[in-house]
Amino acid sequence: METQKKRRGDRKDGRLMRELDSLHYVTGILYPNRCDNEAYISQRIDLTNMNAYIAKKNETETEFPYTMFHLVLAALMKTITLRPKLNRFIVNSNFYQRNEVSASFVVKKQFSDKGAEALAFLHCKDEYTLSDIHDYIRRQVTECRSDKVDPSTGAMDILNRIPRFVSKAAIHFLMWLDKHGWVPADIIATDPYYSSVVISNLGSIKLKCGYHHLTNWGTCSLFCIIGEKAVRPIYAPDGTMTMKETLDLGLTPSRSSISAVWWRAWRTMRRSWTTTSPGTHRAGVLSASL
User: Fold this and answer.
1) Nearest 5°: CA angle at 190, between 184 and 191?
2) What element of type H or E holds 169?
């Protein structure tokens, strides 16, 4: 991702958008909170090619097999890299372009009602391939399931232990710092709401896809829900129907980017899922003029 010299008004995690058109400039003032200005997109994916691709990849990977989650996350990272307008966020009525492409998700330490949770955070680079992201997730999951406490969870644990009136005052102060981009880096190092996209894999617990709101805390401008795989009818243009295994995705983006950008972004994601060639799953290799 191209880096630019920091100027007055920029944040440590994003560049102030000074070249906005009048519509977006006014929108940031009329709708200053992400929860006031979000959309919802539901998509169903034919898994025929993805299943074949995963089976091929897992012929040589048995210790930490590739799953649909890895492909969805890699496709999202590649799409955001190719469509940088998806990586914008609104804070304090201003539009910013995020400095990096990142993703986050929650990891259960134990699959039980009382099992603790940890936060995984991925900082992606333009040259990352699917294999790179797969190995990155492996390291993150292994670390999250250890006894180590991630920085953001550790900060919340401290706030939970001190007297309520003190912690509430501290949280309100942090919210003010958040508005100006001044929250200490150690506190938000693994905070999912400071990433480009938060991913929730509900399919892993046999739940259907659904809507998830954005938050006014942090800078995250996209929430992705992965639903349960199921065999469903697929209709061809001529009206014929076949039963295929499909996957539902729910995407909640902030309206910091226009609808035309999302239309092109979805075409980019579909293209990444219709290939079974391992070499094409590289962020940045596809043409941005799809």
Assistant:
1) 75
2) helix 164-180
Gyration radius of the chain over CA positions: 20
The amino acid at residue 31 is Y
- 96 - beta bridge partners? 16, 89
Contact between residue 223 and residue 252 where contact means Cβ atoms under 8 Å apart? yes
Contact residues for 81 (Cβ-Cβ < 8 A; gap 6+): 1, 101, 124, 126, 283, 284
Strand partners, 97: 15, 88
d(CA 87, CA 197): 9
Distance CA 150, CA 137 (A): 15
Bridge partners, residue 104, by sequence? 121, 198
The string of pLDDT tens digits covering residues 193-252 is 999 999 999 888 888 888 888 888 999 988 999 999 999 998 888 889 999 999 999 988
CA torsion sign for 68, 74, 76, 79 is: negative
Query: Could you tell me how far CA 198 lies from the centroid of its own chain?
Result: 4
